[in-house]
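Subject: for your reference before the review

Hello V.,

The reviewers asked for a structural picture of the protein, and I figured it would be easier to keep everything in one thread rather than splitting it across files. Below is the amino acid sequence we used in the manuscript, unchanged from the supplementary table.
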Amino acid sequence: MGLPGFHFHDLRHTGNTLAAASGASTRELMQRMGHASMRAALIYQHATSERDREIASAMDRRIVRHTRGKGGQNS
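And here is what came back from the structure prediction:
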């Protein structure tokens, strides 16, 4: 491939890491990788600070919607 230190397997790792960061579930990652064990899929679900922010923002939006729907006030 002409890239020193780069292995074909790195593409698989990158693809699965991006899928996990995009919100793929453990089961979806297992299917993509062709594994029956959750162990391999969990490797790719390491949290990133960007994904943590996305999750926190989504949780905040849900709380705000729920609070508004129950007659609460948003500060």
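For the response letter, the relevant points are probably these. Residues 36 and 63 are 36 Å apart (CA to CA). The chain has a mean pLDDT of 83.

Happy to draft the paragraph if you're swamped.

O.
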